[in-house]
Specification:
It is a single chain. The chain has 387 residues and is an alpha/beta fold. The protein has a single domain, classed as TIM Barrel (Alpha-Beta Barrel), CATH 3.20.20.80. The chain contains 13 helices and 13 strands. The strands form 3 sheets. An 8-stranded parallel barrel has the order 1-4-5-6-9-10-12-13, surrounded by 7 helices. It has a two-stranded antiparallel ribbon with strand order 2-3. Strand 9 (209-214), helix 9 (220-235) and strand 10 (242-245) form a beta-alpha-beta unit. The longest helix is centred in the last third of the chain and has 20 residues, at 313-332. The radius of gyration is 21 Å and the shape is globular. Bound molecules: ligand 9MR. Residues 73-74, 77, 116-117, 162, 246, 277, 351, 355 line the site of ligand 9MR. The site of ligand 9MR has 10 residues, from loops.
Length: 387
C-alpha cells in the first residue's frame, strides 16, 4: 500500500469510529425531532459533477447516524434511469434502496417528470421531429410504470412532478403572475400531463405517497397556484398526497413570515407539507450570474466567493440563528409536516458550489467540510431538547 494512503485511511477510520460512537454522547437529528417529523438527507451517489465520489463511505455513515429518510440527488432522474428509450439502468438506485432498507431509512423517489434531466429522446420521433401527444403520453406512462413498479413497496414517497410552475413579475401591476412552466411535457401534452403522471404512479404503487415538489413557494402567487392545482387534482380524484417545499434559502431571504405563509396555507388547505431540499447558503445570491464560473470571472470572485479559506465564526453563528428560527417554525406546524430533508449530507458536497455559479465555496448545511458538527447543528438540537 502506498504510504500516502495511510493517513487518508486513518482519517476515514477515526471518522467512522466517531460517527459510530456519537449517539452515546447526544441526540442525533432524527432522534431530536422524532416526535415532530422525519429528518432527511440525500444520497449524493457514486459521482459528483462527473467525478468519482471519494466520500461515499463517510456520507453513508453520517446518514445512518443522523437521518431516517433519504432522497437520491441524481440517480433516479430519467437521464440516469432511462438514458435511451427502453434501456433502464437501476444499479445505483438499487444500491441506495438496499442501503436504506439495511438502516431502516425511508426513501423518497426523485423524480419522474421534470423539465430538466429528461433525455431528449422522450420528445423526438424517429425522424428527429416532435413526437406526437399520444406517443409522449405512452412514453411517460411506460417510464413511470417501470421505475415506480421496480421499487413498489420499498419507496415510501415519490416526487412525481417536479418544478412545473413558474412566475413572472408584472411591472404595471406590481405583482407576480404564476402559470404552468413551458416545457416539452406541457407544450406537447398540455397541463393534463400532470394528472396522467400521478394516476400512473398510483397504479404502479398504490401505497406510495405522491408529492408535488417546487422551489420559491414563498412567493405568494406561486404557492397559491400550487395549492389551487392540488385542490383541482383532488377534486378530480387524482391521487396526490403532499406538497414539497424545496427550501433553498439564504441567510436573509426569504423572510420568516413568507416561509410561515407556506406552512400555514398548506395546513389550512389540508395538504401535508414536506421540506424537501433544505439548505441555507452563506454566500450572496448569485442567480443573476447563472452559468458563470468564478474561475473565469475573477471580478465576480471577491463579491460572490468570499469564504474560500473558511466561513468566519460570525457568519456561522448567523446561520445557526437562521436554522434555529426555521426549525422553531417547523415544529410549530409539525401536525401538518411529515419531513424536513436537507439537500446534502455535509458542506463538502453541495450543489451550491457549482450552481448557479461554478467554483464557489459555500457552507450551507449542518455538518461542515471537516465532517464537524457546526454551530447550526448544535443550535437545532439544543432547540429541540429545550422543548
Ligand atoms: O443537486 C443536484 C445537482 O447535482 C444536479 O446537477 C442538478 C441537475 O440535475 O440537480 C440538483 O438537484 C436539484 C433537484 O433535483 C431539484 N431541485 C433543485 C436541486 C438543486 O439544483
Amino acid at each position: 500500500m502506498k504510504a500516502s494512503r495511510i493517513p487518508v485511511l486513518f482519517h476515514s477510520f477515526s471518522l467512522l469510529c466517531f460517527l459510530w460512537l456519537k449517539p452515546c454522547f447526544g441526540l442525533s437529528l432524527k432522534e431530536a425531532f422524532s416526535e415532530h417529523f422525519l429528518v432527511g438527507t440525500i444520497w449524493h451517489g457514486y459521482s459528483v459533477d462527473g467525478e468519482k465520489n471519494k466520500f461515499l463511505a463517510q456520507e453513508k455513515a453520517l446518514t445512518a447516524t443522523e437521518f431516517n429518510v433519504i432522497t437520491p440527488e441524481n440517480c433516479m432522474k430519467p437521464s440516469f434511469t432511462q438514458p435511451k428509450e427502453g434501456i433502464f439502468t437501476f444499479a445505483e438506485g438499487d444500491d441506495l434502496v438496499a442501503f436504506a432498507q439495511e438502516h431502516s431509512i425511508a426513501v423518497v423517489g426523485h423524480t419522474l417528470v421534470w423539465k430538466n434531466d429528461a433525455p431528449q429522446w422522450f420528445f423526438k420521433d424517429a425522424a428527429g421531429g416532435e413526437v406526437s401527444r399520444e406517443v409522449l403520453i405512452e412514453r411517460m406512462k411506460e417510464h413511470i410504470r417501470t421505475v415506480v413498479g421496480r421499487y413498489r413497496g420499498r419507496i415510501a414517497y415519490w416526487d412525481v412532478v417536479n418544478e412545473a410552475i413558474d412566475t413572472n413579475w408584472i411591472q404595471q401591476e406590481q405583482r407576480f403572475d404564476a402559470f404552468y412552466k413551458p416545457c416539452p411535457w406541457l407544450d406537447i401534452i398540455g397541463p393534463e400531463y400532470i394528472e396522467i403522471a400521478y394516476r400512473t404512479a398510483h397504479e404502479a404503487d398504490p401505497d406510495a405517497k405522491l408529492l408535488y415538489n417546487d422551489y420559491n413557494l414563498d412567493q405568494p402567487a406561486k404557492l397559491d397556484f400550487a395549492l389551487d392545482m392540488i385542490a383541482g387534482l383532488r377534486k378530480r380524484g387524482v391521487p396526490i398526497h403532499g406538497l414539497g417545499y424545496q427550501g433553498h434559502f439564504f441567510l436573509d431571504e426569504p423572510t420568516l413570515p413568507l416561509i410561515e405563509r407556506v406552512l400555514e396555507n398548506s395546513r389550512k388547505a389540508g395538504v401535508p407539507l414536506h421540506i424537501t431540499e433544505l439548505d441555507v447558503s452563506v454566500l450572496p445570491n448569485a442567480w443573476k450570474h447563472r452559468g458563470a464560473s468564478v474561475e473565469d470571472k475573477f471580478e465576480l470572485a471577491a463579491e460572490f466567493n468570499p469564504y474560500v479559506e473558511g466561513a468566519p465564526e460570525p457568519v456561522l453563528l448567523e446561520q445557526a440563528n437562521r436554522y434555529e428560527d426555521l426549525f422553531n417554525l417547523f415544529v410549530q406546524y409539525a401536525d401538518n409536516m411529515e419531513r424536513v430533508s436537507f439537500w446534502g449530507v455535509w458542506d463538502g458536497n453541495s450543489w451550491r458550489d457549482y450552481r448557479p455559479m461554478l467554483g464557489r465555496t459555500d457552507y450551507p448545511l449542518l455538518i461542515g467540510r471537516e465532517f464537524e458538527r457546526k454551530p447550526a447543528y448544535h443550535a437545532v438540537i439544543k432547540m429541540a431538547e429545550a422543548r
